[in-house]
Amino acid sequence: MSDELGLGVLLFIPYREMERRVFAALAEAGHTLTPAQARLLARIDPGGSRAVDLAESAQVTKQTAAYLVDQLERAGYVERVPDPTDGRARLIRLTPLAESARPVADAATAAVEAEWLAHLGPRRLAALRATLTRLREITDPFLDH
């Protein structure tokens, strides 16, 4: 048996640490979001999104997306508004509370990336970014080809 970790684990470990740091910063700032809620929030378009589109982009069922939107609405992070293009539909839109979480998450992400830059150096970090960007070409189902 090899002591070498698989690529999936090697990709997951730094992602999980970044996620942990972002959620710690959010909690410190008073935002109590779950990872599932945050993933859905991150996919809401500036003008609002339909729940069915959020479900697809988050790769969850419509029921799961509706459940998460209900939670986020009760917590004050989103609101449902009429869709101006379809009177029967509703859009999910971010509230100012949700918007206030973004700079907190962005700052935590930047701090982690700065640590990675200091540890890896600019060449290795650029190579890592380039490699992951290249892998996205064959792994991201939402990438416009």
TrEMBL record:
InterPro entries per UniProt: HTH_MarR-typ, MarR/SlyA-like, WH-like_DNA-bd_sf, WH_DNA-bd_sf
Alphabetized Pfam families for the sequence: MarR_2
One GO process term, biological-process aspect: response to stress
SUPFAM superfamilies, alphabetized: Winged helix' DNA-binding domain
Keywords: DNA-binding
HTH marR-type domain location: 1-137
GO molecular function: DNA binding; DNA-binding transcription factor activity
Name this polypeptide is given: DNA-binding MarR family transcriptional regulator
Organism: Actinocorallia herbida
